[in-house]
Amino acid sequence: MRTLAGVEDEDKWLAEGIAGIQHNAFFMHRALDANNLREVLKYSALMLSELRTSKLSPQKYYDLYMRAFDQLRQLEIFFKDESRHGLPVVDLYELVQHAGNILPRMYLLCTVGSVYIKSKQAPSKDVLKDLVEMCRGVQHPIRGLFLRSYLAQVSRDKLPEIGSDYEGDANTVMDAVEFVLQNFTEMNKLWVRIQHQGPGTVREKQEKERNELRDLVGKNLHVLGQIEGVDLEMYKETVLPRVLEQVVNCKDKLAQYYLMECIIQVFPDEYHLQTLETLLAACTQLMPTVDTKIVLTQLMDRLSNYAASSPDVLHEFLQVEAFAKLSNAIGKVIDTQLEMPIVGAMTLFVSLLTFTLRVHPDRLDYVDQVLGACVVKLSSVPKLEDARAMKQVVALLSAPLEKYSDIVTALTLSNYPRVMDHLDDGTNKVMAMLIIQSIMKTDSCISTADKVEVLFELIKGLIKDLDETNAEELDEEDFQEEQNSVARLIHMLDNEEPEEMLKIICVVRRHLMTGGPRRLPFTVPPLVFSAVRLVRQLESQGGDIAGEDVPATPRKIFQILNQTIEVLSSVPCPELALRLYLQCAEAASDCDLEPVAYEFFTQAFILYEEEIADSKEQVTAIHLIVGTLQRINVFGIENRDTLTHKATGYSARLLKKPDQCRAVYACSHLFWVDDPDGIKDGERVLLCLRRALRIANAAQQMASATRGSSGPVTLFVEILNKYIYFFEKGNPHITPSDIQSLIELINNEMQSDNGNTTIHSDPFFTSTLRYIRFIKQKGGLMGEKYDPIKL
């Protein structure tokens, strides 16, 4: 028994052992050179006696063993040459059994036995059976393991398998299998016994040492997997049951885990598939401390890869009902191993789902069944806090998205949202983003209200705050990216049937309205534009289309839009709400719904009056109002006069004079629309331009009073261009004399400001004059109109 000792002591003992081997090997080689059999056997036995030590760890013992092994190769060469030692191999086989100690005797016997088999003077199976039986004489775990490892190594190329030089009768393959199985069984027993050597205080060290020796045992299974002639029937009836019997009965955590891993790796995939029930039954009988999830995961991964290797093998999975067997086995393992952490169960479900998606991609019921089992397990946990388990759940939910190019397929899985409900808020958002990215990547179109309902339930983590305490913690850039993704998603919802599209819009609106003031400015605009698109679709089809439940009419849609934008205006986000009101007003005009368009304009003006206080925002809003009103031709005289009066009144009350001026001359376009049926009130156009001119003059005077100079004449030049525009459009109230007077006014302003030094220094004014000259030189009717103007 090896006692506890320091590394230095072990190094010393190893050095002594190596020295003993080298010393005796020297005399053995001298005897080999002299062909002295007696001396060869004497010194080889003394050399091999160094392997009887119990003081070395497995790693150090291996070093010592390899020194002896190198010498045994030389010894085998000597034994092969009968002319050198003069003794028949049969007699030599008897002779070496007279060695004094059993360990040297067995090494010598294995070496001579190898030569004996090669001589073919006795059947290979008889010699191998004799050797494997006699090796039982060495029961020390480490010494016995290395001895049997030596036996396995020297006999590997001498097994009586099919096609071998040592092939025997009809049962030859069974003889080879029996030898390897017997050697494997004895080696595994020795390996397991190491844990019972010495006091319990060194148990951890012993486990580490045992782990270092595992390959000695596993090599036997590798040999079994390579024996020619081991067909499926023999594997099913003999090999696997014998190996699994040893695995289950050894009751050792390390041995069971390693040997199951070996079985899965060394034998063919088709064998695993045909013996799946037996293999899974063994998994459920393993010790509770064995990490069964890794074993099962490796098995499912191999079977998944096998299924993916060729479509021809898929029918085999159906014949053996692979999914049902795997699903039942995983359920039993999870139920019996009560201490299995939640991450272990989730890992098993991920592997089972991967297997299902590869083998049975068309069986959505199988996929949903796996997700349902996951829900049951997650429901047994108060709260999922393990980050690794959360990562596995995300992998579980991501697998269907990656497999099915159409996200709609995943939406039909009833247990999918139930799994997502168990994610924390952060992970829920990550998963929601993955779903949206999958839709964008595949350019999927969600076309029914039911599927939209399911989809928005899945991504609810992005649409509303699931936990109010975390509402303000999200980085602003990340928050904007999330909401922009939701906005893009809304544009992917479409249906050619107006009734169904209206249902989709109502479903989306119901979900978005729960988003709170931070989200609505991102999500309401795409919803509004989707609804406006539906309105224009209805208009192009020439009227209303009534459904059984919800009439898909423009008027009904505009009611929904009005309610939606009203919520946005109370966020508050008045500037955005005003823009959306104007968009809806223009759409209502296209549908010839004057009262609806007037109501949207009314709401826009109310927002302007009550909510928009910033002067820059007011300027932008006025120009938007004027531009939209100018394009709309649905209003009657009374309504149009009311709206234009409001617009011009607001324009004249802006804070800054330049802003007032520009807004007022922009209002001139409200009275002259360049369409055949458009309004053309030249007198009111002139009134607007003169009013703008007065405001510009006042702005110049204020600039002169405050800065000592009148400043640039840009406003006058801009008004001049408006005069020219309406003059060319045929407004009879705009005359050449008006343009002439304005040019002279600008010249005078520039001369007074520059001290009579430079005239026409304003580039805008210079370009305007150049245009007038060009038109005059061009001639024609327009040129004649410009003739009275003198530059």
TrEMBL record:
| Bilayer topology annotation | Peripheral membrane protein
**Can the keyword Manganese be found in this entry's annotation?**
no
Its subcellular locations are: Cytoplasm; Endosome membrane; Golgi apparatus, trans-Golgi network membrane; Prevacuolar compartment membrane
GO BP terms, alphabetized: intracellular protein transport; retrograde transport, endosome to Golgi
SUPFAM superfamilies from the UniProt entry: ARM repeat
Q: Which UniProt keywords apply?
A: Cytoplasm, Endosome, Golgi apparatus, Membrane, Protein transport, Transport
Alphabetical list of InterPro entries matching this protein? ARM-type_fold, Vps35, Vps35_C
Q: What is its main location?
A: cytoplasm
* Cellular component, GO annotation: cytosol; endosome membrane; Golgi apparatus; late endosome; retromer, cargo-selective complex
Q: Does the keyword Transport apply?
A: yes
What Gene3D superfamilies does the entry give? Vacuolar protein sorting-associated protein 35, helical subcomplex Vps35-C (1.25.40.660)
The role this protein plays is: Plays a role in vesicular protein sorting.
The entry sums up its family as follows: Belongs to the VPS35 family.
In its UniProt entry, what is this protein called? Vacuolar protein sorting-associated protein 35
